[in-house]
Design goal:
CATH superfamily: CBS-domain
Shape: elongated
Number of helices: 6
Oligomer: single chain
CATH topology: CBS-domain
CATH class: Alpha Beta
Distance between the termini: 30 Å
Largest sheet: 3 strands, mixed
Mean pLDDT: 94
Low-confidence stretches: none
Strand order of the largest sheet: 1-2-3
Number of strands: 5
Length: about 140
Amino acid sequence: MNVQAILRSKGRSVVTIHPDASVERAIAVLRRRGIGALVVSEDGERVVGILSERDLVEAMGRYGGELLGVSVAEVMSCPVVTCAPDDSVADLMAEMTSRRMRHFPVMQDGRLCGIVSIGDLVKSRLDEIEYEAHSMRSFIAGAA
């Protein structure tokens, strides 16, 4: 299974935020959308950073009560590790584990075309395992 299959199922919508936006605005968007990261982009196509819950916790330690007025650009992670639609789920799971990250923006021809999270990858892998198990049970029942 690859990223393209996940995007077909979940869609290609990506929530982005401008690097000049305030952290207060970013937190409001994260909360309203119920997501764990925002792709930072000036135009919705090129990725300049990513802002995750982990980035916010680290920034809180650095800025304290002043954090809400700080710009996203000051606390985002960059450069951003991205993936491509043809990347395999297994490879991305290994990469997420080794880098201790939970989100991969998906890039195609230099443009943002989706995002996958560790939850998306785990769900995909579980669906694949369930399909394989069902196929094996059907094969065994048919052979008996």
